[in-house]
């Protein structure tokens, strides 16, 4: 005879199999036994875009729905960054492997068990069962309808609600435990595509996404998390369909402390800081570098960016020249700079004569774009081109011989510049290196972990270079020239547009980038103002390949019955 526990696992397995079939591409209508993606792409209210939640978005969503004390454990399937693009655009093409789905299933069960344990259940249950030893459809319906609004970021359909109520009943029967039934239903909800993906549906006008999708798009852009009750209420009332209502929500969200999450998420993606998790160095060469130092470098860069563009609301170009940063004890040791606090971070300003300034002087940037045992002018120059200027650089041919450049013990060619000069006598190599090296060699006074130096193998380092026809010497001077250039600001505006929509440049609404660039410049190149401009743009909510909505919005179209239920 099968045990009650085994029967409960089987019921969950059947539900999860249906959701897994949806994720793997099978057609599963919302009214079917396991709710998932709409089968017909041409049906009204069709799904027009989907992006997988990142690990940070998943964790933020769980914390915002259930509280920061609910633990999330497990391994997340990585979202692959397309070449020369953002992870945000890769999320639009990201699938979940069977092994990855098993991880999500395990996480969902663990989360559901915590939410419905004796310590937490009263927080989320608006009712008590008549008998805790059996199913209670009315109480389960109330539980799933309230939580479902936040988990799916829209009201559940009647079919979805009854599906989860029925699942809770099937789970309660063999276990003789009402809460175990809810646990089963909630775990299934947390592996549904409607939670794991940011699903966006078309509005009735055929031009834009609907109000619920707008709320999600706004919240993931500004907060990197789900909509809160205020934003969902605005969506239910049609307020996001008016200029006044939309602006009120955008201003409120940007003023929220949660806006820091959004800034961190964008710049983590934009500056490739996600790679810090895999950053390793040769500890024989860099004996002070540890995984903890790597995380400190990432946090230092994010603290600097958040302070500059959000808290002080300074212009983005000034981020290339600012001398204000933050240090803790570990980084103080590496940078050979005294830090008074034994724990935590303190603000620090580099002297005017110091080579270290702005983004290019950040240890995270310098360490990320280096090799394990040495610096790399080519990797750094390529990063300046591709990351900060949005200028793709061709990959080297597969048969290139790097042995001469990699010979760091050469008694004659002691510095990277000298070895690169010899390497570039090959015209095939020179064509690419002339793009990257003039911007990477000026950063050579920083070693492979970002520590300052003046010599390499006892030979003085030549840090001269040229940018947009102007000669300079050293990282700080390059930062100054980049602050005067249009390239970095155009690149940032493009990346914010791509990040906000999940679309690559070629798929963005025509003319939008030019409009954003002009607004960015007119607003003094303030990042916060750029995000606000994006969030208030009709193009931000436009359907792919659809013309933008008229500039003057009219009253909201009549919402569906599910949408008229005001969020409480």
Walk me through this protein's architecture.
The protein has helices spanning 4-23, 55-66, 87-90, 98-115, 121-124, 137-151, 158-175, 178-189, 193-196, 211-222, 229-236, 243-255, 259-270, 291-311, 329-335, 363-368, 377-388, 403-406, 416-423, 427-440, 475-484, 487-501, 512-522, 527-535; strands spanning 47-52, 197-201, 324-327, 346-349, 455-456, 459-460, 464-467, 470-473. It is mainly alpha-helical and 568 residues long. The chain has a two-stranded antiparallel sheet with strand order 1-2. It has a two-stranded antiparallel ribbon with strand order 3-4. The chain has a two-stranded antiparallel sheet with strand order 5-6. A hairpin with a 2-residue loop joins strand 7 and strand 8 (470-473). It is elongated and about 85 Å long.
Short description:
The protein has helices at about 5-25, 55-65, 85-90, 100-115, 120-125, 135-150, 160-175, 180-190, 195, 210-220, 230-235, 245-255, 260-270, 290-310, 330-335, 365-370, 375-390, 405, 415-425, 425-440, 475-485, 485-500, 510-520, 525-535; strands spanning about 45-50, 195-200, 325, 345-350, 455, 460, 465, 470-475. By secondary structure, the chain is mainly alpha-helical. Mean pLDDT is about 85; it is low at about 1-45 and about 550-568.
Rg from alpha-carbon coordinates: 27 Å
Biggest beta sheet summary: 2 strands, antiparallel
Question: What is the β-strand count?
Answer: 8
Distance between the termini: 46 Å
Counting copies of identical and different chains, the oligomeric state is single chain
Strand order of the largest sheet: 1-2
Beta-sheet strand percentage?
Answer: 5-15%
- Inertia-based shape: elongated
Contiguous low-pLDDT stretches (5 residues minimum) are 1-44, 548-568
Number of helices: 24
Helix content: 40-55%
Mean pLDDT: 87
Helix-and-strand structural type: mainly alpha
